[in-house]
Amino acid sequence: MDTQTAANTSNYELNKKIISVVIFTFFAYLSVGLPLAILPQLVSQQLQYSSFIAGGIISIQYLATLLTRPKAGQLADMLGARKVVLMGLGCCGMSGVFSILAVFCMDKPSLSLILFALGRLCLGAGESFASTGSTLWGMNLVARTETSRVISWNGVATYSAMAFGAPLGVYLNNHFSTYAFAATTLLLAVIGFVLAYRKPTVRVKVDTKIAFLKVASKVWVFGAALALGTVGFGVISTFITLYFDERHWPNAAYALSVFSIGFVFIRLIFGKMIPKFGGIKVSLCSFVIEALGLLLIWGSTYIGMAYVGAFLVGAGFSLVFPSLGVEAVKQVEAQNRGSALGVYNAFLDIALMFIGPLAGLLIPLIGMQNLYGVAGVITVFAVILMYFLNKNAQKQI
C-alpha cells in the first residue's frame, strides 16, 4: 500500500469514526429545521400574533440553549459525552410531545402558544446537550490535532440537517397534517436515543478543572466575533419566510436550503484551510463573504438575487464556527475542552436569543427588507474585529 493510499484510508477511517457520533447532532438539528418554515406562519397567521411574538417563539429556543450550553459542556467533561447526548435527544423528544399538544389546542391560541413555547424550550435544551455532547464525543475519539475536523463535521451535520429539515417540514405540513412535523420530531428523538444508547462511551481522564469565569476570560473574544457573525443566520432562519411572503415570492423554505447548501459545500471543500491558514484569517475572509450575501438580500429586486444572497451568507458563515472554535479551544487544556465549547457556543445562543425579538421590534420601524441591510452592517463589525485580531496575532509572531 503506497503512502497516498494509506493516507486516504486513514482519512476515511477517521471521518467514519467522527461521523458515527456527530450523526446525533444531525438528529437534533433535523428537529430544529423541521418547524423553521412552518412555526412563524402558524403563530402569525393561524394564531394571529404579531411578528414580534413570532420572532420571540423562535428565539425562546435559543434562550434555553443559552442557559444549558455551559452546563452541557461541564456535564460532558464530568459524566462523559454519551450521557449528555442521551439527555439531549430526550429533550428533543419532549419538544415533539409539546408541539403535538400545541397543534391539538390551536383553537385556544393562548394555550397553544404556551405549549409551542414549552416545546421550543425543550428543543433548545436538546440542541445544546446533543450538539455539545456529540462534538466532545468526536474530539475524544481522535487526536487533538483533528479538532477542526470534528467541529467541521459537526457543522456539516448541523446545516445539512437544517437544509433537509425546512423543506421536509413544509412537505409534511402540506401532504399530511400540521401534526406531522411534531410527530417526526418525536420519532427522530426515539431513533437517535436508541442508536446512542447502544454505543460505548469514551472518557477522558480529568486531572484538573478551571473555574467557569476563567474559561470565559480565555475564549470570550472569539465568542463575541461568533455572535456578530450569527446575526446573518438568525435573520434568515427566523424571518426569511415572512420576507418572501411580503415580496410575494414562493418557496421560502428553499432559501433556507440554499443557505445550508452553501454552508455544507464550503465546509466540505475548504475545511482544510483552517489548519493551513489559521482560524483568524479564515474567519476574516468568511465574514466578508457573509456581509456581501446579506447586503445582496437587502438589495434584491427578484427572487434569484435573494437565493444567491442566502447562498453567500451560508458560504460565509460556514467556516466561522470551526475557525473561531479552534482558536477558542486552543486556549484551554484537554480536560476543559467541553467547558470551553460550552462557553464559546453560549455566545451563539445569546445572539440567536436576541435576534428574533429585536428584529421583530425593528421590522415595523425600518421594514422587513432593511432588516437584512442592518444585519449586513453588523457583520461588517465582525470583519473589523477579526482584522484587528489578525493584526495583533501578526505582531506576536
CATH fold topology: Growth Hormone, Chain: A
CATH architecture, by name, is Up-down Bundle
Number of helices: 15
Q: How large a portion of the residues is in β-strands, by DSSP E?
A: under 5%
Overall mean pLDDT: 84
Which segments are poorly predicted (pLDDT under 50) over 5 or more consecutive residues?
Answer: 1-9
- Helix percentage range: over 70%
Order of helices and strands: HHHHHHHHHHHHHHH
Family: Belongs to the major facilitator superfamily. YhhS family.
Main location: membrane
Subcellular location: Cell inner membrane
Domain Major facilitator superfamily (MFS) profile: 184-397
Overall description:
This protein is mainly alpha-helical and 397 residues long. The protein has a single domain, classed as MFS general substrate transporter like domains (Growth Hormone, Chain: A), CATH 1.20.1250.20. Helix content is 85%, strand content 0%. The chain has 15 helices and no strands. The protein has helices at 3-33, 39-46, 51-79, 81-104, 109-141, 147-175, 180-197, 212-246, 252-270, 273-277, 279-298, 303-318, 320-329, 337-366, 368-396. α1 (3-33) packs across α7, α4 runs antiparallel to α5 and α5 packs antiparallel against α6. The longest helix has 35 residues, at 212-246. The radius of gyration is 20 Å and the shape is globular. The chain starts with a helix and ends with a helix. Mean pLDDT is 84; it is low at 1-9. Keywords: Cell inner membrane, Cell membrane, Membrane, Transmembrane, Transmembrane helix, Transport. Its main location: membrane. Residues 184-397 form the Major facilitator superfamily (MFS) profile domain. One of its GO terms (molecular function) is transmembrane transporter activity. It holds the Pfam family MFS_1.
